[in-house]
Amino acid sequence: MTEEGKSRGSSLQRIVTGIVLASVVLLGVLSEGIFFLSLIWLVIFISAFEWTSFIGLRDYLSKIIYSVLVLGLCVFCFYSAKSSELMTTFIFIGVVFWFFATIFIYRAAEGPGLFCTEGGWFFACAGVVILSCTCASLIYLYEQSSALLIVLLSTVCSVDTLAYFGGKSKGRRKFVSSISPRKTWEGVWFGVVGGSVVSLVSGYFLLSFDIPILLCLTFATVFFAIVGDLLESLFKRMANLKDSGNLLPGHGGVLDRVDSLLAGAPVFAGITILAGVYE
Predict the structure, then answer these.
(1) For the chain, how many structural domains are there in total?
(2) Which of 91, 156, 244, 263 is positioned for an S-S bond with 50, CB 3.0–4.6 A?
(3) Distance, CA of 179 to CA of 7 (rounded, Å)
């Protein structure tokens, strides 16, 4: 098969997988709580299992233990939903983490050799913070309104999908080649513009935010969706990995699919809290 044929096959595979995933997620968002929670916890468990590759864990038992510990913390996030202060704390820990992650990415882009790859404890702690704060954010948004989750998911998926296909078809200038050689400025702008339009349109019709708040929500979520993607790419580079896994045809691992959501969810939830619309 020619390279062009392989590329088309990969793109088609990616589209089909994306449609299936989107259907399952939409069903989860619109369903009763137990199905939604089961779906979230399944994604968290698989993501934690894939995260062990960053840590350097090789044996199956160690991977399972780490994944169960992360999942246990996320289940605690659900029960802490009864305490708004504790849930808010989880969410804003995530916001602060991603603020500093942006600086971390900027430094790494300037000096690719600045960070060593032998950082098992660093990766382990980062995984716990990222996954638990994402879980808390998604549960909070679901408890407030399914419309919030629909806007969030449609935004980050649009950024990710349009950046991929825009970069693939029009990409010329490298974005941050020291972190992710395949990302281009053209792909980034496709993702930014497309994700912003989807967020503004869906948010205007589904949410009760004022326009200034909706604009802030949109651009912050789009920006951090890109940051989340970059951080996972940086972590894979630091750990000498090509993909986080191979569970999803055309996408790699689950982490490769949800990396934008990991950063977008806490920021989206944090702005929602600050806006006070759902109090």
Answers:
(1) 1
(2) 244
(3) 23
